[in-house]
Predict the 3D structure of the following.
Amino acid sequence: MKIAFQGEIGAYSEEAVAGLYPLAEIVPQISFESAFDAVSSGKLDRAVLPIENSLFGSVHQNYDLLSEHDLNIVAEIQLRIRHQLLATEGSQLSDIRTVYSHPQAIGQCRTYLREHLPNAEIIPAYDTAGAAKLVSQNGSSASAAIASRAAATEYSLVTLAEDIESNHANFTRFLSLARPDDEPEEGLSEESISTGNPKTSLLYAQRENVPGGLFKSLAVFALRDIDLYKIESRPLVGSPGKYIFYLDLEGHQEDERVKNALHHLKEVAASVKVLGSYRSGRILG
Amino acid sequence: MKIAFQGEIGAYSEEAVAGLYPLAEIVPQISFESAFDAVSSGKLDRAVLPIENSLFGSVHQNYDLLSEHDLNIVAEIQLRIRHQLLATEGSQLSDIRTVYSHPQAIGQCRTYLREHLPNAEIIPAYDTAGAAKLVSQNGSSASAAIASRAAATEYSLVTLAEDIESNHANFTRFLSLARPDDEPEEGLSEESISTGNPKTSLLYAQRENVPGGLFKSLAVFALRDIDLYKIESRPLVGSPGKYIFYLDLEGHQEDERVKNALHHLKEVAASVKVLGSYRSGRILG
């Protein structure tokens, strides 16, 4: 199998792909859009892309691309983002004078840096994998990068300190997307297949000018005792009162209860798009 | 007045501050946290911070900081993110060989770059204001940056092309935060004060193991015909079934209807925190 992901080799998303598809070939893509296109066109088998982060919210761009493309969600995984302090072989913490990383990663490791490397110069890089590559290429034992474990492997760096982020509740949820005619569980790791109950993700738009429209659309699930795992309204800026909703709910779209609820939702909503039914993913890392 | 914002001078958020508080002194902060601290401690008067972007979702970190600090939302503004191609005085589009910017901005301008600068080398920078600074400092007429209008002014660059982003529906919503004892509308631009109906933002946590808990908590508003402008569930990863909700609703917290609804919500929710009542913000840019 060939899997599209967005970013460079050594990026955090590569860890998510390896967690879901340990035996697959990983093919980096320059953008989320090109990852969607590679799977839609049949060139690659799956796209594994971030859909939300516990600190930074939903990736609306991937919801938009899901809405425009005809791909199904077939699996998910939650990746804990763990930042590592990486340096060249033989280097020690006391040697480090310069630390390279993405500003977001630097921010998340500020407490560690202040305590352990108060005099190091901090140099922002445009991504964590690029910072690791730089340290590997310049070869100085006085340089370190904050990056993923995958970056350590890719660029043959050693780990001077593990999990140096202040907030350990930093998770990114990734979805695996396939063409609708494809076998959903092909290539997935055993662990990914065996965990979790089925859930269903969908997008819908409210009918305009229906008072209490949101409440009515949620009633179709409450009336059938179907639990919701996620609800998010997304306003259309400049069009007051117009929204799209993201919903994750308990159960498979082929379950009788869910089928009936979706039928009922179509009565009260302007449009409904089911994005896929898949097992709740495990937490990695 | 002194306003805290996160980022460098010339960043997009500086435009939001200037839109809300045209006469204020703007004080850059290294992190969202230090912006909160500067206002909480009384050192600065307001913090103007991003809370959601139409492409990238809610900034959960700022919701967390709102939940931890005792600051009130007193105003909002929606800033359209417009990317400009900036270069040194006298430079022309045909001179440009190198373009610097943040990878996200580069991605959003890919169509323009492909059509107008197909042979330029694209070099990622860690932020857009930094890219503009670099072009200004190296002074070569062959270099350009993709950055904000504020960056053009700050670094004395000229605009070679305006609004070169492919998707014009790119908006960031900023909130202005003040200490609870402060006068909410002090220093706000006339335009900001005069637009919009009052709305109220709040956070709440559902009671555990209450079937249909979300539906019940929304009923307190539907029963009183109070419209919701935003609803978002945020799962506690690793604690299945535990959520926090973000809600924006129609009306001021001192309105009788809203007061009653909030009273009712406290009956059915585990915890409720009202973040402030303020006028819906205008769209800038």
Q: What stands out?
A: The first strand of chain B starts at residue 2 and ends at 6.
